[in-house]
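Field log, afternoon session.

UNIT: design team B
ACTIVITY: writing a sequence onto a fixed backbone
BACKBONE:
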């Protein structure tokens, strides 16, 4: 009888794959198959030993198809939307992965960055997967694109929001040198009118100052720098360090419009 139940699970996963899905949940199995918890547990253990499934979060698994068996897991872009719906979280794919989607990366990032709301969630870091969750208080859906993948639509930040997020999360993505290199490629995708609208919705003005400073002084894109300058022209803002660090500016003066104190020498590949 157990073998029959195991075969039911195999058939169930085949049906999911025929619908273009790469993931499943314990709850979904229970809703579809009339089998016991113990039978489901044994079936999943058997498939896991054969490297056919992998646990991502409690109750949420991915189906590993033959082309991904050597990696041990399918690319996150194929299951991230299903995972975040399962966790009931707003999200978008951002930072290095969003930039790479717009052609601003020398190679596909090994890490996968997802922006979501609090409460905090543990990131997933192992030999098979580097899935990082970054947290933000809020964002506007107007700054999110939906891209079509083979499993459906995935939320991803626009080039304009991506540029600001890269600066805000600079320490999470390898520092300002890496950020500046990526921005230098990303600017070709940033539209001045859309940038202005995104700036109006973005809640972290220090990142806006740093973006303007880099656009003008390091990337030399004066068109976009002037958009940021126009945005800040009627705003109240204070001196900030170019590289984020704890503590205050300590009386250092910023002799530029952006009120940015350059406490790091940028050495990007631009």
């Amino acid at each position: 009888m157990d073998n029959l139940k195991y075969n039911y699970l195999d058939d169930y996963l085949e049906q999911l794959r025929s619908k273009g899905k790469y993931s499943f949940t314990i709850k979904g199995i229970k809703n579809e198959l009339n089998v016991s918890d113990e039978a489901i547990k044994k079936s999943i253990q058997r498939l896991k030993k054969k490297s056919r499934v992998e646990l991502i979060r409690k109750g949420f698994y991915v189906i590993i198809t033959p082309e991904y068996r050597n990696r041990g897991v399918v690319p996150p872009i194929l299951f991230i939307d299903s995972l975040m719906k399962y966790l009931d979280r707003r999200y978008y794919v951002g930072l290095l992965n969003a930039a790479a989607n717009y052609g601003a990366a020398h190679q596909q990032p090994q890490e996968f960055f997802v922006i979501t709301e609090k409460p905090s969630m543990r990131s997933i870091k192992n030999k098979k997967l580097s899935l990082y969750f970054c947290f933000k208080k809020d964002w506007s859906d107007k700054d999110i694109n939906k891209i079509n993948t083979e499993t459906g639509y995935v939320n991803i930040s626009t080039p304009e929001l991506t540029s600001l997020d890269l600066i805000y999360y600079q320490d999470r993505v390898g520092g300002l040198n890496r950020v500046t290199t990526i921005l230098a490629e990303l600017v070709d995708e940033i539209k001045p009118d859309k940038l202005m609208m995104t700036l109006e919705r973005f809640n972290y003005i220090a990142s806006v100052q740093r973006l303007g400073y880099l656009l003008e002084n390091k990337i030399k894109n004066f068109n976009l720098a002037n958009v940021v300058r126009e945005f800040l022209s009627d705003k109240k803002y204070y001196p900030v360090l170019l590289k984020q660090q704890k503590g205050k500016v300590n009386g250092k003066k910023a002799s530029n419009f952006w009120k940015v104190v350059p406490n790091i020498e940028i050495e990007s590949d631009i």
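LOG NOTE: The two ends are 64 Å apart (CA to CA).
NEXT ACTIVITY: expression trials, pending approval
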